[in-house]
Design a protein that fits this description.
By secondary structure, this protein is mostly helical. It has one domain: Tetracycline Repressor, domain 2. About 75% of the residues lie in helices and about 0% in strands. Belongs to the UbiA prenyltransferase family. Protoheme IX farnesyltransferase subfamily. It comes from Arthrobacter livingstonensis. This is Protoheme IX farnesyltransferase. Pathway: Porphyrin-containing compound metabolism; heme O biosynthesis; heme O from protoheme: step 1/1.
């Protein structure tokens, strides 16, 4: 139930300027033996940049699906359970990616790579987080939320982390399924149904991730190649990746503007989202001929982070505005 990361995204969201160095920085700081250092070591294993970004979308999905009255106790249960499940998946992903992380400059100081957290302890930590998260969701939410949470967990850890990330250029596509699970979990947490609104929020986050993480694959291309990770920029080249980024940016825009025609939000949402989507598309078009490719890719990624934050806010308040 976490966003894919061809390399742990940016806070960098993730990346990000924000997702991009947070987890490694935390890991680097946690070098002592005191309880505070131990807490930082384990905290960094949960990839806080990725964790909080995903929980933000879960909260947005919940508020989007409850325009009239918000059940705040249910809201807290959904967010808490989702946080624990995503944290569990991120910790386990750290364990699985130790060989890759050891090669990449931005991840080689992670506690699971340096040995400051033993693999066995990390596994136990992951299990505890996962069991606690599922227990919270099963006790205080509904079966759909549990199903989405477990489905996202398996998609991220198994389908993405164990298989497609290492074997296929389509790894980011697979990982985007798990990355879209939190917003869907939040939505069904409030609505208890799978409907058009659920499909829209899921597709929004699914399409959002592709321009974001394809951009990372461009400016981290050399690192991915060295680590043997078959991301699109390595396998198909930068020019093809730029085209894919633009196409998926346009797909995101098309889905992001659907809520108003379906009567789910008002013109305030569409006005702001329309401007933001247009800006992202224009930036994508400029990238096709950009000479400073890595600089453009970083800018594209930062815009993606801005877009995700704005989208989360707009989903939360859109049903409540004209």
């Amino acid at each position: 139930m976490a966003a894919p990361h061809p390399t742990p995204p940016p806070r960098r969201l993730g990346g990000n300027a924000r997702l991009d160095g947070t987890d490694s920085a935390l890991a680097a700081r946690a070098t002592g033996s005191s309880w505070r250092d131990a807490v930082l070591r384990y905290y960094s294993l949960a990839k806080p940049g990725v964790l909080y970004g995903n929980v933000l979308t879960a909260a947005a999905g919940f508020l989007f699906a409850s325009p009239a009255r918000v059940d705040w106790l249910l809201f807290m249960a959904v967010c808490a359970g989702t946080t624990l499940v995503i944290g569990s998946a991120c910790v386990l992903n750290n364990i699985l990616d130790r060989d890759i992380d050891a090669v990449m400059a931005r991840t080689r100081k992670r506690a699971t790579v340096t040995g400051r957290v033993e693999a066995r302890n990390a596994v136990l930590y992951s299990v505890l987080l996962g069991v606690a998260g599922v227990a919270v969701l099963a006790t205080w939410t509904n079966p759909l939320v549990v199903a989405v949470g477990l489905g996202g967990y398996l998609a991220y850890v198994v389908l993405y982390g164990m298989l497609s990330k290492r074997l296929s250029v389509h790894g980011t596509l697979v990982g985007s399924i798990s990355g879209a699970a939190p917003v869907l979990g939040g939505y069904v947490g409030a609505s208890s149904v799978l409907d058009a609104g659920a499909a829209i929020v899921f597709l929004m986050l699914f399409f959002w991730q592709l321009p974001a993480f394809y951009s990372i694959s461009i400016y981290r291309r050399d690192e991915y190649a060295k680590a043997g990770v078959p991301v699109i920029a390595v396998v198909r080249g930068v020019a093809n990746t730029k085209v894919q980024i633009l196409l998926y940016t346009m797909a995101f825009a098309a889905v992001a503007l659907l809520p108003q025609p379906l009567g789910l939000v008002g013109w305030s949402y569409s006005s702001v989202m329309g401007v933001l989507c247009l800006g992202w598309i224009v930036l994508g078009v400029r990238g096709l001929a950009a000479a400073a490719t890595k600089r453009w890719a970083r800018l594209m990624f930062r815009y993606a982070l801005l877009m995700m934050t704005a989208l989360s806010v707009l989903l939360a308040v859109g049903p409540r505005l004209p």
